[in-house]
């Protein structure tokens, strides 16, 4: 009897350990553990858990299914940003909070972004659903789609971008009337991240050069077109039918070097109009997220070579361009005495040719006014 009890306890212990191991590997378990660590103020441990969750389930969202019919709010990037804020690492906190807002707007992320950037917090309006009347069933209207306000202070021009027609391989009529270029440009426009080259003008240029609308084949040709119209980068790619799936691949090409700055893809077995539009939107979002708006400082100047205090850990990569500027005196409202911002003087533009985790090095490619000095501010273009 005693021996049987021992065997039973061993088996029970193994089952419990196995169950814990399986449960621990679920993204929502990591997320819930992170929230618990935040409640006790264990910010570093919370970040570890949230990062594990992000490895499996990347995007912040208001509603996501965990198991069965159980749904939760899932905002790992927002919570990571809040944790870094409490640890005093505002630069990392700001990047994570902005990423969360790009995925899904939330007042909590906007509130903490205001804290780390020193801007006033403005609660975005939320529409109250209509209550159903007893005599008639009334479906509440969906909440409005709200784009969060731009908090980061822009200096100079945004990154100039043109989207070329995508090649198609093995497609029939799956795409219907969906125009990949038009849909992608709409998403880019709503993100307010790039300065877009008008599609109809680009079509005229392609027709004049007898390239047609079937898609530009190689990066060097794409770069040549982009350089000719004065943009920083060109997006080109392919839409492919592979069995039951449709895959869309996109590359962002530097117009000066023809090098790939970023490459992203999306694949789906669903081919409804909405599913295909969602694929294109996600692809555009991935490209935008891979080119974040980041601010930093010049920490070393050697001729036309500038060293910055931000690098790969901040989302920077080789080939990205940055605006260098001098920040002057505060602009104060004469009546309310409220500080509205600071005067800025754009000094020039650099292109990153070396990117390390904690810092990066760039070459001056444009000069406007003044002299580059240690302490100048920079912002990604």
What can you tell me about this protein's structure?
By secondary structure, the chain is α+β, with helices and mostly antiparallel strands. It has three domains: 108 residues, Tetratricopeptide repeat domain (Serine Threonine Protein Phosphatase 5, Tetratricopeptide repeat); 131 residues, Rossmann fold (3-Layer(aba) Sandwich); 86 residues, FlgT, C-terminal domain (Thrombin, subunit H). Helix content is 36%, strand content 28%. The protein is built from ten helices and 14 strands. Strands 3, 4, 5, 6, 7 and 8 form a six-stranded mixed β-sheet that branches. The protein has a six-stranded antiparallel beta barrel with strand order 9-10-13-12-11-14. Helix 2 runs antiparallel to helix 3, helix 4 runs parallel beside helix 6 and helix 7 packs across helix 10. The longest helix has 23 residues. It starts with a helix and ends with a strand. About 9% of the residues have low confidence.
Describe the structure concisely for a colleague.
This protein is an alpha+beta fold and 381 residues long. Helix content is 36%, strand content 28%. It has helices at residues 2-24, 27-39, 43-56, 76-86, 90-103, 107-117, 180-191, 199-208, 219-229, 273-289, and strands spanning 61-67, 70-74, 159-163, 167-169, 194-196, 233-242, 245-254, 260-268, 295-302, 305-308, 321-332, 339-355, 360-367, 377-380.
């Amino acid at each position: 009897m005693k021996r049987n009890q021992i065997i039973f306890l061993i088996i029970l212990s193994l089952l419990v350990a196995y169950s814990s191991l399986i449960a621990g590997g679920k993204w929502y378990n990591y997320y819930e553990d992170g929230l618990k660590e935040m409640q006790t103020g264990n910010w570093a441990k919370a970040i570890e858990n949230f990062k594990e969750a992000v490895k499996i389930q990347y995007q912040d969202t208001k509603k996501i299914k965990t198991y069965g019919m159980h749904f939760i709010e899932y905002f790992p990037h927002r919570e990571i940003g809040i944790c870094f804020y409490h640890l005093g690492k505002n630069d990392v906190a700001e990047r994570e909070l902005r990423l969360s807002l790009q995925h899904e707007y939330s007042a909590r992320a906007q509130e903490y972004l205001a804290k780390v950037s020193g801007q006033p917090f403005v609660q975005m309006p939320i529409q109250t659903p209509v209550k159903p009347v007893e005599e008639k069933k009334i479906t509440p209207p969906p909440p409005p789609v709200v784009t969060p306000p731009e908090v980061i202070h822009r200096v100079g021009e945004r990154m100039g971008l043109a989207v070329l027609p995508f090649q198609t391989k093995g497609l029939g009529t799956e795409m219907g009337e969906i125009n990949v270029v038009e849909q992608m440009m709409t998403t880019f426009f709503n993100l307010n991240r790039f300065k877009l080259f008008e599609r109809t003008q680009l079509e005229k240029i392609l027709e004049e050069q007898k390239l047609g609308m079937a898609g530009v084949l190689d990066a060097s040709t794409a770069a040549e077109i982009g350089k000719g119209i004065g943009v920083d980068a060109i997006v080109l790619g392919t839409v492919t039918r592979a069995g039951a799936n449709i895959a869309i691949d996109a590359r962002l090409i530097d117009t000066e070097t023809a090098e790939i700055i970023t490459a992203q893809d999306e694949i789906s077995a669903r081919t409804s109009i909405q599913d295909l539009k969602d694929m294109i939107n996600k692809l555009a979002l991935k490209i935008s997220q891979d080119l974040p708006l980041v601010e930093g400082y010049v920490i070393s100047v050697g001729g036309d070579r500038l060293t910055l205090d931000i690098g790969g850990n901040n989302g920077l990569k080789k080939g990205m361009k940055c605006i260098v500027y001098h920040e002057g005196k505060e602009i104060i409202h004469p009546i309310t005495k409220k500080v509205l911002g600071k005067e800025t003087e754009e000094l020039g533009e650099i292109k990153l040719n070396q990117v390390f985790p904690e810092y990066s090095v760039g070459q001056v490619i444009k000069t406007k006014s003044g002299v580059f000095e240690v302490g100048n501010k920079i912002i990604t273009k």
